[in-house]
Every structure is written in structure tokens, then in C-alpha cells.
Amino acid sequence: MTDIETTPLFRKLSAFVSLSEAEVTVLKELRQRRRTFTAGRDLIHQGQSDQDIYLLDSGWVCSYKILPDGLRQIVDFQIPGDFLGLRSALLQTSDHSVEPITDIEVSEVFVADLLGAFARTPRLATAVLWAASRDEAMVVEHLVNIGRRDADVRTAHFLLELGARLALVGLGSKEGFACPLTQYHLGDVLGLSAVHVNRVLRRLREGGMLTVHKGQVTFDNYDRLIAFAEFDPTYLDQERPFLK
Amino acid sequence: MTDIETTPLFRKLSAFVSLSEAEVTVLKELRQRRRTFTAGRDLIHQGQSDQDIYLLDSGWVCSYKILPDGLRQIVDFQIPGDFLGLRSALLQTSDHSVEPITDIEVSEVFVADLLGAFARTPRLATAVLWAASRDEAMVVEHLVNIGRRDADVRTAHFLLELGARLALVGLGSKEGFACPLTQYHLGDVLGLSAVHVNRVLRRLREGGMLTVHKGQVTFDNYDRLIAFAEFDPTYLDQERPFLK
DNA sequence: ATGATGGATTGATCGAAAGCAGTCTCTGCT
DNA sequence: AGCAGAGACTGCTTTCGATCAATCCATCAT
Q1: Per-residue pLDDT for B243 more than 60?
Q2: What's the pLDDT at B38?
């Protein structure tokens, strides 16, 4: 069995709460029913109700909405350590679809089990709730990003944020990260055409700031990039004193 | 004392749950400490923590973020019956600012009182939680709106959504609604310049779809507008069978 | 080797929205 | 009455990003 302390969720939550022995055990028990899904086949459909919660163990997933004319807007990507359908299950609404970008491994979590775990370990509940609120803050940040930043800054900001999220679960650093997204995915999340994404990436590369090549995002000059993107590197990983 | 049954919050929640005598009483007790604020002065500042929750009784408010270069993105407007700072208080983060657009009247609600009310009346808790999730769904819808719809459709969609929300609390109908927003406000929420908003509104007016004049939004042809904006009129007010 | 496919890349053109500048019309003020 | 200011409106020019159309380059299947 995998050592729990290397799992993405554990790493993520540990950044905000130091988990006790008992809490680790509870976390472990949640991850029993493992399942795998293949890339491209929708996991959750827009309008579906009463679905399960999944904890993403490996691979990448995206949540999106489709417009009548076929245009797609990706709301967010989920990476290892993220929950899928948490909010939808708690609130019984699924207003968007969820599609695996790569083959993924998930742990199926029953709502009742999760609520039981929360009841036994309030600190765990707080930490998970915090993670959920962080996800929401990110959606708001994407709104600002798309509404008010130009394509270059917007793209840089998004990739930095993604890097920060990945770093939190041990899958990235200031150097860069492995990234399975195509330029079409980037277009759909940034509200740009894939062609334009290509030009933007070229400009960022020629500006010596970042390189995207062969499924690898490399931050060529992290500090310059931060400044260019107006990115606040603390906004995702600051400590929460009240939780410590 | 105001008759509770005419208050916006009561009307909104009643659309989803039929509240019992006891629940109405609890609701009434929450609305004790009335306060007023004047237009323009920020209620909540970005970064602030540990603030109160307010229930908006009358007037309009907007939540926004400011970028370093001074550009502003309004995340959403709040109208009578909406909570202010609910999420921030529960989750101890305030990542945006809140500013009254008009003079407003609010009821200050202490977190402890609200939680107490939830404990005594679970159905009320569910209803409020539902309202919160609806707010979140709206933010996602705005993301799609800004990311993938052109200015005209985007504007029409937004005004229809606003109309639907207002109708829910008795402040609007298929005919239109009173609206204190300037074209600058509309620009900031739609990710457009105020000048362009003006042109968009002219096109919509000349298309016989809607008129904005003197603080009044009039839907000149509701059905045509719905079709043009690809607006789903049920998405905010559909019944929740599990709550009835 | 030979295609077939999906993604990346580049060029050329077009259109939507921004930016700038100025006018107009209220409303409130003294 | 006269003025000041905010918001609404319009014309002109520029810029950003979309769209259309190729080409290129891996990987994979046969």
C-alpha cells in the first residue's frame, strides 16, 4: 500500500494543518475504492445529479461548460490531490462537465464516509473546507484574469498559478512542471483561440520568460515572469495561522 | 416592524423551501441589528479578515477586485436578499472588496447566531447553503460569459440573469427592472470598456430587444432576447425537489 | 517505407473592442 | 440664472485576437 505521506492530498493539506496520527488514519481509510478512467471520456455530465465524489490520485482532469454553438470554456483543471464533484455532491447540483485529460486514477469516496470523517476529525473538515474555498478563490481569479488581463499576462499568470498548485503537491517547482495540456486546452481555459495561444507562448519564450515544449513547462526566468504576470506567489500557499 | 413575508430573503428562500412558522421566527430574529451605509464607501476591503456577515435589505452592492494598473473587475453584484461576506466569514478569507453602489440598508448577522439558527432549523441551513451554491454557479456562468460570448450576447445574458434574480425577490419581471448601475459598472462586470457598453446597448435597443434608460432596464422583447442571449430561464429558479 | 493522425507553428486577412477625443444632457448647487 | 460634474453618447483610429489556410513534425499503425 502506498505510503500516505507521499500522496498529493496529504501533502496539500499538510501545508495548512499538521495532521495527527488519527487524522492520517481517517485519510487513509477514505482512499480504499480505487478506480481508473481513460482520457477523454466524460466523468460527470452537465446536469447530472446524485453523483459520487472522487479524489484524484494521479492524472489531470478539466471541468468545463459547452455553449450551444460548440465553444467550450474550461472552468478549471484538477490535479492530483484535488476532489472531483465535492461541491456538486454536497449541494446536489452539477452545472458543468468533467473530463479526464490523461488516464487517471481516483479514489471513490462516499458522501456518508466523508461526512463521517469530518465528524470525527474537525480539523480535517476545516482543512478540506479550506481547500474548497481556495478552489473558489481560483475561479474568481480566473474571472479577473479573463476579464481584465491581456493574452500574454493572462497566460503567464495562469501557468504560474498552475505551477504553484503543482508545487504544493510535489509535482512542480520554480523550475517548471510536467504538463499534459495541449494548446487547445490552454485556449479553452484562457478564453483564447489555440492559434493565438501558440503566438503568446512564442512571445513569452522569446522574452526569455517561459518555455512550453514536449509536455514540459519551464520557467526560464521565474522572477521576471512573476513581475510580468503580476502574480502574487503567496496567494495559494500562505499559512493559515488559525489552523496551525 | 416590517412584515417578514415581504422581505427579499424570505421571498428568495420561499422559492425553494416552504418555511415553517418556527423557521420564519428564526429568520426574523436574525434581522435585528439594522445598519445603513452610504454609496461608494467600501464595506469590506481586499485582504481583510474576521469581518461580519451582512444581510442586504435594500440597495445594491458590488464585489470586485482591483488590478495593479487600476483596472477593475466586478465579480458580482449583490441585491436585496443576498448575504455579504458569508463565505469569507465561514472560511476566514476575503479575497475581494465590497462596495455599496447605492445607499444600502443591511442587517448585521453574527456568525454564532447564524450557526445557531442553522443548528435549530436544518431546512433553513440547507436553503441558505443552496443560495450560496447558486451564487457560486453564477460566478462560473460569468466566467463562461466573459470567456466565450461576444459583447452583445454577453451583455444580454447578464441583464437577463440580473432580471431573473431580481424577479425572485419581487424587484423585477419579464418587463424589466429598476437598475442603479452606470455603464461603467456594466463595463467592469462584463470585461468591456464603458464606451463599448454604450454601443452594445444601442445595438440591443435598435434590435428591439432591450432598452436601458434612466435607471430602468426594459425588456422590449423578452422571448427574442432569451433566444439571442442563449439564456436558460430556469437555471436560477428551478425547483429543488429534494427541498420541497 | 507509407500513410494517418494530432498537435505545433507560421502567414495573411478580418473584425471586434479599446482608446482617444469630443459633445450632449441631465441634475444639483450657489 | 449660471455653472460644475457625472453620466451618456458618437466619430475616428488603432490594436488585439479570431479566423482561414498552409506547413511541419512527431507518433503510431499497417
Answers
A1: no
A2: 92
| A9 and A128, same domain (yes or no) | yes
Same domain, A157 and A234: yes
Q: What is the 3-state composition of chain A as percent helix, strand, coil, each rounded to the nearest 5? A: 45, 20, 35
How is residue A112 written as a grid cell? 456518508
Q: What percent of chain B has pLDDT over 70?
A: 93
Whether A116 and A9 map to the same domain: the answer is yes
B72 three-class SS: strand
Residues A51, A56: Cα–Cα separation, whole Å: 15
Q: Is the separation of the CB atoms in B147 and A191 below 8 Å?
A: yes
- At residue A77, the pLDDT reads 97
User: What is the helix (H) or strand (E) element at residue B168, kind and residue range?
Assistant: helix B151-168
Give me the phi and psi of B131, to 5 degrees please.
-60, -40
Q: Which chain B positions have a beta carbon within 8 Å of A147's beta carbon? A: 73, 146, 190-191
| The predicted structure's pLDDT at residue A129 | 81
- Residue A169 identity (one-letter amino acid): V
Low-confidence ranges of chain A (pLDDT < 70): 1-2, 49-50, 90-93, 237-244
Task: Report CA torsion sign: A148, A150, A151, A153.
Answer: negative
Q: Is the CB of B192 under 7 A from strand D?
A: no
With a CB cutoff of 8 Å and minimum separation 6, the contacts of A44 are A51, A84, A85, A88, A94, A96, A97, A98
Task: Measure the CA–CA gap between B128 and B53, rounded to whole angstroms.
Answer: 13
Instruction: Give the model confidence (pLDDT) of B172-198 as tens digits.
Output: 999 999 999 999 999 999 999 999 999
Answer yes or no: do B176 and B86 share one domain.
Answer: no
Domain co-membership, B98 together with B161:
no
Nucleotides of chain C in contact with protein CB (under 7 A) are 6-12, 16-21, 27
Domain count of the fold of chain A: 2
Asked if A230's CB is within 8 angstroms of B140's CB, the reply is: no
Domain with B219 in it:
149-229
Q: Å between B216 CA and D3 C1'?
A: 28
> A215 or B131: which carries more pLDDT confidence?
A215
Regarding whether A178 and A131 lie in a shared domain, the answer is no
